[in-house]
Amino acid sequence: MILATGSAYVGPLVDAISHARLSNYRSFFSPTSDNETLGLYQWNDDVSGCLFRAMSLLEIVLRNQFHKALGCRFGAVGPTGGKDWFNHLNLNPDSRDKVKKITHRKRHGTWLPRNPMPSPDDVVSKLTFGFWSHLLDVTHDATGQTLKWGEILVDVVPGHRMRQPTQWRQPERDALFARLDLCNEIRNRIAHHEPIWKLGPLLQEARARSGVTPVIVAPAPTTPADVIDRLSVYYDRMMELLKWLSPDVAAAYRGCESDARCRMLLTNEALDHYRNRRTLGTVQLDHFLGERRLAKVLKYASRHRQPVALKRGDAVVGHWTSHAK
């Protein structure tokens, strides 16, 4: 999102977003003007967008890893090749209902199978992120046989340091549950348009059970610098989970523009840049015949901390933002 600057826009933007929604930014970041407040709001929106792009990839890889690992062990082959393993596990009632809402429709109070019946691949693609963490609660298949989670998880997270089935004891499975639960919480905050920087205490990666209470590793952020540090921790944990699921995909993502932009946004310099936002400039790429001329213009923009939109004709093809002092 790019919010226009200038006094003519500030009032209407504040009214449109609402004073109530911006009040959290004012109380935590102590901006000195509405323009600063809008800059902070835009920073939150851009960070959320970057995290959501990473989360979308993570969610796809996560469900496919479970789908492959469980499909190798349970189910009948569907029309597109995937197996309906979810019909062969003793799922908890909530998880069973999530599957049923995809495979059936309710008519006059009665659940009827959809026609045509969704393929196993279609069912898996529609399951929520939260479904996968609670899948770890399943202990038996539909015949009453105990699930060998150690063997399954070795296939689900081949990039994890625990590569032997015997290593996946209950505490280790609970730590994985906590990581999945954290990612689901981040995803839901973004999806519900909640400020991504409003965070509670950082808990130990464990699960509350009889005799086990996750301890607080770090208190809730109280300063903007604390927020940057905490969001960086969360992003690193997302990327580590992606590496556990697929080292190759994680390596490919580590070298892409979205990752670089997210890491750039999660700095104190970037936050200050958004707080003191400037009018967006324009660089028309069609006017430059060589890289050296373009580099000089972008260097000048960096020196003056001027964000610019890169255009070809009328189309915006990228943005340039630097925090050089």
UniProtKB/TrEMBL annotation:
It comes from the Bacteria. Pfam families: Abi_2 (PF07751). This is Abi family protein. It comes from Pelomonas dachongensis. The lineage of its organism: Bacteria, Pseudomonadati, Pseudomonadota, Betaproteobacteria, Burkholderiales.
